[in-house]
Write a structure and sequence with these properties.
about 160 residues, alpha+beta, Nuclear Transport Factor 2, Chain: A, seven-stranded mixed sheet, 3 helices, globular, SnoaL-like domain-containing protein
């Protein structure tokens, strides 16, 4: 496995485990701000750490409500972007399970990592799933009381059409 894939998978493992363990501070610390989160039909720019914690908590609560007993993300590809190798663009697949049964059809995601002060941070993620199936970016954000969709594509890739 090449270096970009190793880094990307380690980031997926670290942040997925932290979210599963409800360690939302660790998840928030792993991100760069503003942070982009997109799903089918909804895009949000998360302005700060407190807002990311709100979304991460809502996401984890939704996994619990669905009855999930496991949440895994597996790297399917990653490459360095730019000559400085300070950005990684990756593709991963997400699995949400209850025991050995899939709760959702596995879905793909793209994510951009950026290197800041020697540490990799998530800059943006796009997941090919509907918020109606898995709440990823739907919670109201602190300070605004709303989580309004954006009209741009964000760093994790171009928009995809909502297939709902």
């Amino acid at each position: 496995m090449d270096e970009a894939r190793v880094i990307y998978q380690a980031f997926l493992d670290h942040t997925s485990q932290a979210a599963w363990d409800r360690d939302f501070e660790t998840v928030a610390d792993a991100m760069a701000y503003p942070h982009y989160i997109g799903t089918r039909g909804r895009e949000v720019t998360v302005p700060d750490r407190a807002s990311l914690i709100t979304l991460a908590r809502d996401f984890r609560d939704n996994l619990h409500t669905l009855g999930a007993t496991a949440y895994y993300r597996i790297c399917r590809g990653a490459t360095f972007g730019g000559d400085a190798q300070d950005q990684i663009n990756g593709l991963h697949e997400t699995f949400v399970l209850r025991g050995a049964t899939m709760l959702l059809t596995p879905f793909t995601g793209t994510m951009t990592l950026i290197l800041r002060n020697g540490t990799w941070h998530g800059a943006g993620i796009r997941s090919d799933v509907r918020n109606a199936d898995l709440r990823i970016n739907a919670a109201p954000l602190p300070h605004t009381g709303a989580c309004a969709p954006n009209e741009h594509s964000g760093p994790a890739g171009p928009k995809t059409e909502d297939k709902t």
